[in-house]
Amino acid sequence: MKDYVVIGSGIIGSLITRELSKYPVSVLVIDKENDIASHQTIANSAIIHAGHDPKPGSLKARLCVEGNRLYDTLEKELDISLLRTGAYVVAHTPEEETMLQALFDRALINGVLGAYFLSGDEARKVEPRLTDTITKVLSLPSTKVTFPWEVAINAISNSIKNGAEFKRNAQVVSIDVKSDHFVLHLKNGSSIETKHVINASGVNSDLIAKMIEEKPEFEIKPRKGEYFVLDRKAVGLFNHVIYPLPTKAGKGVLIVPQTHGNILLGPTSYDVMNREDESTTREGMKYIKEQLKSLSNQIPYDMIIRNFAGVRATSTYEDFYIQESKVHPGFYHVAGIDSPGLTAAPAIAKYVVEEVIKINLPKKPNFNPIHKNIPLFHTLTESEKQTEIKKHPKHGHLVCKCEKVTEQDILNAIHSPTGNDTIKGIKKRARAGAGLCQGGYCESEVLKIIGRETNKKPTEVNYYAEHTPILVKETKTK
Ligand SMILES: Cc1cc2nc3c(=O)[nH]c(=O)nc-3n(C[C@H](O)[C@H](O)[C@H](O)COP(=O)(O)OP(=O)(O)OC[C@H]3O[C@@H](n4cnc5c(N)ncnc54)[C@H](O)[C@@H]3O)c2cc1C
């Protein structure tokens, strides 16, 4: 019997798991997918928002501003990537300038520090590719950008070091409520008993809630967001996150520099029926280009290397829904976590454990908050490379030429405690296949390495989930 089971290993479930691992309780985080961070957490803008946009007094406002600050601590403790870009919100007309002033006032009420105005010309001196129709800019220096799935993976690695467990391919299909515990039934026929459950299952959080409650107080209305990705050679073309003015539909189509030098363009925002429809559309791509004209006329669309989409867990409840079940105490919903959920995640984790669960235990004296990444070879200095290559000669074999990923980097990604044995899992961790050729060159090599390391035939190596092989059968025999 576990003390706590967390359903979902996105950014929310992973940081809650880490928060719980500070206490003397048993914690298991489970996910239906084969890897950590497979849905919203891998398909978003990666912005750590300042907190200028959420409605004052809401949980979204409070936890966004707190979360933004907590990322500085996570950077030190979990060795995560953080790019301190700052952000510009732009206005073109006197009416828009009035809206910009209202946004500034909202930022002040929400506790955002350091916001100030620039004229269009002042902003163009810093970001010369902004359109010349921009008349005024709200600068939000506390805005940052992170590498979202690295945060989730590192949080779970650190939780494991502190005694927590992670189980993949564990889809909850039904739940029995007993007098003093819950039984989670999984798709593979097994079951898990636990005293408490945290429902951090993203777009499925209402479906999980319906497994124990007849009428949950929230329903998920999935909203898709599509993007273009520019090659990392675009680094420096824009150095700030550039926002238009927000509307009811969200923060609009943005320009977002990424931690590895790429630039994201997007997202769209429209309702979809299918919660996991992460496909892109011709209309979406057209819409992004159309909307970006108001931000810049100098976007190098010839540098696009791919597009992708994510689906937001937007809910009928206006705010984040973070509450203990009113029907079955001990079951906690962390639901409707759409934007700014990535930003708020570290604050949500603390809020859940300290203010919703109200855990009444002393923290473990031996909790170790530190996680250290094994650095990728290309990030080392020349002398570090010389030392490292003597210890690990497989760094001498360059597998992904675009992102300069070595065979040893891939071995590290496969064999770490939260490693993965799929093509996408290796791309997430070592970035093999994340560059200009999108794996065209290295994917077959990565597949061979995974097969060799995990004793699988090439036809058994999966692309991302169970039963997703790239190679279906042998076409040539010796
Ligand atoms: C297009 C887009 C742009 C965004 N941009 C930003 C941004 O720039 N800044 C920001 O702060 N926020 C942003 N967000 C919001 C942010 O990404 C989310 O709030 C955050 O990732 C939510 O994390 P999560 O862990 O709740 O959900 P997820 O990452 O979706 O994780 C939920 C997990 O639950 C698992 N699961 C589901 N059902 C089951 C089941 N039955 N059994 C077991 N496991 C299950 C899933 O496999 C999944 O791994 C954006 C979101 C989107 C979609």
Care to describe what's here?
- The protein is α+β, with helices and mostly antiparallel strands.
- The chain has three domains: 2-41 and 148-220 and 316-356, FAD/NAD(P)-binding domain (3-Layer(bba) Sandwich); 87-141 and 221-312, D-Amino Acid Oxidase, subunit A, domain 2 (D-Amino Acid Oxidase, Chain A, domain 2, 2-Layer Sandwich), CATH 3.30.9; 377-460, Arc Repressor Mutant, subunit A.
- Helices cover 29% and strands 21% of the residues.
- It is built from twelve helices and 22 strands.
- The chain has helices spanning 11-20, 59-78, 94-110, 120-126, 148-161, 205-210, 282-292, 341-356, 382-391, 407-415, 423-430, 443-454; strands at residues 2-7, 27-30, 47-48, 82-83, 87-91, 116-119, 136-140, 144-146, 165-167, 172-177, 182-186, 191-199, 223-230, 241-243, 254-257, 263-266, 270-271, 304-312, 321-324, 331-335, 398-400, 405-406.
- Strands 1, 2, 9, 10, 11, 12, 19 and 20 form an eight-stranded mixed sheet that branches. Strands 13, 15, 16, 17 and 18 form a five-stranded antiparallel sheet that branches.
- Strand 19 and strand 20 (331-335) form a beta hairpin.
- Helix 1 (11-20) packs parallel to helix 8 (341-356) and helix 10 crosses helix 11 (423-430).
- The chain is globular, with a radius of gyration of 23 Å.
- The protein starts with a strand and ends in a 24-residue tail after the last helix.
- Residues 7-13, 30-33, 37-41, 43-47, 49, 170-172, 200-202, 204, 208, 225, 267, 310-312, 337-343 line the site of flavin-adenine dinucleotide.
